[in-house]
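Quick one: structure tokens for this chain, please?
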Amino acid sequence: MWKPKYQRYNKGFTFTELLVTIGIIAALAGIGTIAVVKIRGTTNQVTCMNNMKNISSGLQLHYNDYKIFPDDGYPDDTNDQYPLAVELSDYINTVKTFICPLDKDQTSIDNLASYDPYYVKRTGAGQTEKVEQLAIGCPRHRDNNSSTSLFSTGYTEITKVGATLANGQVIPPDGNSNQRKISNVNDVMTFDDGSAVTIASAVANYNVFLTQSVRLSDGTLYSIIRVQGDGSITTTVTSGSKFEVVTPSAIVGVRGTVFTVQTSNGGATTDVTIITGKVIVTDRASGETNTLESDSAVLAATVDKNEHDHYHWHDDGTYHSHPHPGRKNAHHGKNDGKKKLVKLEEKQKKWSGEEEENKVVVCHMPGTNDEETKEISQGDLAGHLAHGDYEGACSGVSENYVGWKWKKWWKKNN
């Protein structure tokens, strides 16, 4: 009998074909994994960017009320006791706004302070240069190679992180305070463009911290360092780069120059001496600026500010201002700011029904005219029982009972 010709092809895969098939599947799986990782990375950065936009709005509302932005320095500066989450708790009521989704530092997360190490308080008195000033950054993205940056004008940009070294060792851009600082005489911090900062003198508790160093869209490296305590540094900035030295009393902004910065009186006094080039010294309290150039008669400037003005509204609509001591947060720090934020978030969940599965039915104020059956959260049960309530529905209803569901609707909509 004749056999159909096609039957000779009715065989299983050869070993080679199996290897090829497995290789193709593995390659496709790898491509899919890479795509998922990229999508997650983009999502995290978009979340971070949205957080910064919300923080930017909170900063502006704070400035409208006080005519001053919240102090900076937390957690590096021990004089700044409160993170932005506390300072802005009157304007932002979502805890997650202050946490970068890629923040892995539990202390930072617990204190709602993902962005504080990269925040610089501006005066709000206008720009001193055409290039906008960095206000907040977050260098945790794309394996710490990309930063989400918020500028003083309110717009955000994704920037590339520039490598920074401390005595030859790479500083993690998202490192803790100890990792981002130099503190001893002759310690050197060097930047991606060849700029360098050297500690010339120091007393106890003198520290120089990296705030951020990123590439702007035009390729310019923009670096910011923060000085805490009393001492002096010598700074050499590569021509064309943007650089800022932030002290408690002044911001020294430069583009390609050599200069010294000396702080005293706990940072309240800042002395700047120009060697070559040009610097702009900004008084952080008043916003007044002083330009120093090496070819001019004025080669040095001093900013000495122990007080800052606090503005607030009166009921009649007028402003009142008076000086406050140099200690930070003297007029707007709130010890209960974080607690307030957490309570607001819990309240939002409660009224949105997100905690419905954790509800418990209790009889509230039994035996009184206010007796009623209520639904409460599991976490509130112990408190109700301690005040004489009991778990389960009431056996009767008082003449004043209006219903928990109605009260819930009223509180949610009024």
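The CA atoms of residues 99 and 110 lie 9 Å apart.
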